[in-house]
Amino acid sequence: MKLIKENIFLLSxxxxxVLYSFTLAPSVxxxxxxxxxxxxxxxxxxxxxxxxxxxxxxxxFLNIPLGLRKITQANLLAAIWCxxxxxxxxxxxxxxMNNYNLNKKDQVKKNKKSVNQISFSDDQKLISVIAxxxxxxxxxxxxxxxxxxEVYSLQTFLFxxxxxxxxxxxxxxxxxxxxxxxxxxxxxxxxHMTTLLVIPxxxxxxxxxxxxxxxxxxxxxxxILISLPFLIIIxxxxxxxxxxxxxxxxxxxxxxxNFWRHFTGKQYQVWMFASLDAAKKQxxxxxxxxxxxxxxxxxxxxxIGLIYLSKTNRNIFIATLFTFLFSVLYTINYDIVDIDSYxxxxxxxxxxWIVFGFVYLYEKLSKRLRNxxxxxxxxxxxxxxPFVTNKNNASQNDIYIFEDYTKTILNGxxxxxIILSYQWDYFISASYYFQxxxxxxxxxxxxxxxxxxxxxxxxxxxxNHSEVFNKIKNEAENFVESVKPFERNENYNANILEQNYQAxxxxxxxxxxxxxxCYLGLELVQNEMQRGxxxxxxxxxxxPVNFLFKVVKSKNYVEAPLPNFKLRFPKxxxxxxxxxxxxxATMLVYRAVYExxxxxxxxxxxxxxxxxxxxxxFNIPSEILNSVGM
Length: 630
Description:
The chain is mostly helical. The protein contains 28 helices and 5 strands.
């Protein structure tokens, strides 16, 4: 029993890891999953801000021969990060409880002795910390980070590390512990810029302890001077690797201009502090979503813990509340759709309050119950609530749809074809992984239409698809020259920039079509082409083939394979999966209409029957069904 108590946090961490393994994604998932796994495996450069620490550690881990698919191994690393963030979270809060000082005004009320420290029992500390840790581990967004490769899984680990070292320095008499805090911040910033959200926690406790004086300023300056070189060394990975021109070379940070643009995430700054309306929208989303993170039970316990802190330890109360509010109020100014991960620090801070909520409940129950042994099963039942409630929302163990969708697209085109699309979240990101890690249909040239707006992207096309690039070399050079003033915040000619951009897209097709089959994504046809923002020469036609539109220089019938594909949709859906459902069903209907136009009624019926069978919720226009007698 003593051995178990001594290693309870490690055992809890391993239990969390085991439970996480049952919800682990077996393949790529939506958004950046494919890109990030590819960057780790090929030692490339990811989208801004580059995430060098994430990349280097991931590369080392993926080279361990575990006998797993590389994407599964990358996903496993995410589960490990999240599990061990729970370990350091527990260590941090346990350290806090071991050094828990009363508010000065409450010292006399607690007892008449000159004692300013609350004495928690060992059972009270361990049970409360573990209960709060499990609420964090199985909160919705946190749990989701453990299921697939993402930078936020490592970031949760680093958040916990930073908070642990801050508390250790706060309770220590040795000044050198603040230097360790600085180094932990280096690791945080080497992964993700949301590390700045922890600064209020560090600053509040630092000045509570060291006061605002010349000596405290010296400590801060020394900490920065010691830590900053390590951060610079880690970020030197970006230009050093860019010089080697890897397969994935986002931003091509080969010089200071490119590096600074990439490091500061300039292309995403347009969404920061966009407007007051955007902030209100994100705050509304945060508040409406919050109860589902911890369940209403966790929400109530967390509020109890916050009140308990306010009455017993003013410094920790203010530090956590200030950090929580700063984290939320800063993050809501980022106007993006997938903002959930940016709220992770606020969830971690709230979990600290949940721990102290359990501390309070333990006190009350121990007074009411004759036997304290009843408290453990009561707490176990309570912490089981978020596990049961969030399991279906967090689990990605049956997500194969992005692999199936991507492979079906790649397999549905001829050798050396070109695909122009901007389905990053559903197809393009995943295609990087399957093409460059698993060597699946590497002959197919996948071009991201939106990334064609970035000067660095042409270097990557030239590196990976030189023959295609050479066909549009002049157009590419003209566009790069016209976009440079825009990227530098200088005066630029918007009309010339747009003309050059459209010239790149058009000539990408027209100058390659004689040697390579060319395809366009559904979104490009339905949006840009319908709005007249992108056009092909008049003698060109678009033919629906599989999930794409084939570009042809003919009005004749173009045959396509019958819809014998198999897509494995998961039990639980989301907006990304629904997009694929709708897109596939739409393309099948488009193909049926195309068959009808050439009087191939029986073939049209096959496509429509596929829609009815696989996508019964999709509304096929009645006139189409009537035209084939269905």
